[in-house]
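note to self: the first set is below, dont mix up w the second
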Amino acid sequence: MSNKNTSEIKFLIELDENRVPEKLFWTAKDGGVELSESKAIMLNVWDSKAKESMRIDLWTKEMPVDEMKIFFHQTLVAMADTFKRATNDEKMADTMLDFCDYFAEKLDLKK
């Protein structure tokens, strides 16, 4: 048997009769999260053989549009941060953050 550690993240999706998400739950025991409810999930996975991104975007019927706009903004900011850490390309990360500021301004998210 190998000495490798593993970690698991699970998503539980409750669907209505039309297979539309009604409730979303996620569990990450290593992070202390157990069946935590969420209203939206964006998951991206890199397929290195096909050289393409695979994604799952889900949101419940109860996800308000104003919260979805905030969720997108925060996701874009996080992507800029991740891009900077992954590539050390500060100039492009700053450009991405400039877009995030523009995005927030146009959606009137800045208070």
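second set (the one i keep forgetting abt)
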Amino acid sequence: MSAAVTVKSCASEEEAEFFKSMLETYGIHALINADDYAGLPLMTSGGVQLQVLEEDVEKASKILKDAEEPD
């Protein structure tokens, strides 16, 4: 079984949901891991991690990189 690997750290769950949806459009199953300890701000507690399976890391990283580059 493959492990989940973080491919992007996000400032909010909304941002992570946006990128998760984008990856799933390309057929990549993505997970969101939010470290929200006792109501601490997400950036203080580690933020929100967007994760994919090991075998999808390369493809997901390329998709995310292309999405962040200005046209």
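remember for set 2: The mean pLDDT is 86.
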